[in-house]
Amino acid sequence: QIFNQHNAEAPNLEQAFQRMAQMEPNLDHDVSWFLLPSYWAKMVVALISFVCFANSYDGDFVFDDSEAIINNKDLRAETPLGDLWYHDFWGSKLSSNTSHKSYRPLTVLTFRINYLFAGGFYPVGFHVINIILHCTISVLMVDVFSILLGGLQFTNKGRRLNLAPKSSLLAALLFAVHPVHTECVAGIVGRADLLCALFFLLSFLGYCKAFRENKEGHTFSVFWVLMSVILGAIAMLCKEQGITILGLNAVFDALVINKINLLELIRKLLYKDKSLENSGLLRKGLLFRITLLMCGGASILYIRWRIMGTGPPAFTEVDNPASFADNLFVRAINYNYYYSLNAWLLLCPWWLCFDWSMGCIPLIKSVSDWRIIALAALWFCLIGLICQALCSEDSHKRRILSLGLGFLIIPFLPASNLFFRVGFVIAERVIYLPSIGYCILFTYGFSLLSKQAKKKKILAVAVLGILLINVMRCALRSSQWRSEEQLFRSALSVCPLNAKVHYNVGKNLADKGNQSAAIKYYREAVRLNPKYVHAMNNLGNILKERNELHEAEELLSLAVQIQPDFAAAWMNLGIVQNSLRRFEEAEQSYWTAIKHRKKYPDCYYNLGRLYADLNRHIDALNAWRNATVLKPEHSLAWNNMIILLDNTGNLAQAEAVGREALELIPNDHSLMFSLANVLGKSQKYKESEALFLKAIKANPNAASYHGNLAVLYHRWGNLDLAKKHYEVSLKLDPMAPGTKENYNLLRRKLEQLQKKGG
């Protein structure tokens, strides 16, 4: 409701506004809750939201953070800033067939700024920004909820009145401490949802400012309407859901600013009631504002579509099995079941999981499945709320329920599978914005209970208990997000049928060197999903390292049979075939891998090793050269080139390659060592000595470094230093090949010299 006052001389205008506001139905009349000044309410919300997630500040990069941040070249200074506008969230070109089309350049830009300020991949700065963003959003929620629950009213000075201070505080606290938000706050990739929510709310508040009376006396400001469209566009550049704020602004305008009764409007439209002409919609500018919002939204979507390309993102059946079901009925039933699970996560956020795909939620294929009850319960509640929102005679009730349902449903639509296929079954992060609607409905329900309850304090204590439980759940869940081990293991009890959970636990164990335990989880992942090629590939790799070559070959062969373009599996199959001395098959596997991934330096490196084993030296050198062209910092490829040229007597060529390699990777001690050996053989003793010493300084516990330096001194005639480094080498590795023999030769030579000297 808007009041415009033109008589600036009227006394006590602000008190008059307060009295007029109190004549309207007000949630706070019935809510038994704390009444705090606006400043203190925001301080309390900020503090509690900080307490919930503070323990995530020193967490690691976990789960999707690796791909979106560590492996994302768009964060590095050498990548032009302009590339961010043509790449997806993961750093791939939007035009690529493998791109997920998630276009979030502003989020990636904030990651890049984090990276530059931190001077590298240090997660603390990333986590701190996420926590600050959530606290800021929670504080903004106090203002947003005061409008949604109490209405929009201004004084003659343009100050907005908070007509529901108690209700807005409760709703903001519910939002701030909701455990389902943990993924967005504690997971760095959740930055996209946080930034989107920030500009989403700013767009809404900007739209509300459009109705503050200006000096010219106009009923609304076109500038602020356009500003809300711009802020909505910024929200969408952070995450796709941001565009939905334009629809919500239109709903807010119709319900709050114009006080439209939707049911009455539908009746008039159906019966072509002439009173529509005098309804004031055109006079109040509603149609004009909605036209601005629609034109702005259409323009944003068109530009987004042109940048993204006309093709939809490519997802697989394991990402979203229901969307691949042939039967329309099965698809519809399962989509609705997913909606009911999302609703349950809002109501009871106890079972939380980082990933809900790969068998975590088996498909409903028959109406006899008991889970159909969840669908019925969801639609029973939704239809009941919609009927009340449309048919209630209480305009205040209609407004709050309509806004609650609007904020619950509209931001969720991009994740609903209704317009396009999404790459997940359930994702807790996408409920961040819809939880606003849940908080509105919860607070309204609490006000109704308070109105009926005789002992209001008991009800208030119960709500305080819910908030406290949620705070503790947030803290616990945040601690689980601090490391991959805790995160993945926490999912085992929630989604024991999820093959990806077992895969990630296995991968984490393998990275820590616990191969035996990793094998167990990889095998379970393959059992749960017999087509899980990544689990087969990783299991095959471990079995290869344990010299269980035949089983490794079976797994990798099956993986490439299921997914013929799986380049990594083809390369690993080639390595196994090479170990089994089936060289022709290994060569063919390597070339197949390169065919499916043109820029594959590791595959060229392994192909070079195969050619070296077959004494095809020129082919080996060419393969390793290709590896270094694709990846100039590929130390192993450079080293193998130097060693092969050294062993074949091409010392000048070996020296040239070594110097080229050290220019590109100046601090690589293994390259220093290889080049030092070549220089020593070329009798460039001084330069060779300097490189050996530099390599030893970088890696003082390498027995071979000391042993080969000792050989250099031995040749050079510096026998005392040779003796010293032989002894250091033997101390580090008593079984070092050749070192003991060389040391004994040196000792005999020193003894002979002593006898001659005596």
UniProtKB/TrEMBL annotation:
What is the protein name stated in its UniProt record?
Answer: dolichyl-phosphate-mannose--protein mannosyltransferase
Top enzyme class of this protein? transferase
Transmembrane portions of the chain: 39-57, 131-151, 188-208, 220-237, 243-266, 286-305, 372-391, 403-424, 430-449, 458-476
Enzyme nomenclature, EC number: 2.4.1.109
Q: Which part of the chain is the DUF1736 domain?
A: 311-383
Please tell me the species this chain comes from.
Answer: Ptilonorhynchus violaceus (Satin bowerbird)
The record's InterPro entries line, in alphabetical order, gives:
O-mannosyl-transferase_TMTC (IPR052346), TMTC_DUF1736 (IPR013618), TPR-like_helical_dom_sf (IPR011990), TPR_rpt (IPR019734)
Family listed: Belongs to the TMTC family.
- Annotated TPR repeats reside at 499-532, 533-566, 601-634, 703-736
Keyword Amino-acid biosynthesis attributed: no
Q: Which gene encodes it?
A: Tmtc4
Which GO CC annotations does the UniProt entry carry? Answer: endoplasmic reticulum; membrane
> Hey, which pathway is this one from?
Protein modification; protein glycosylation
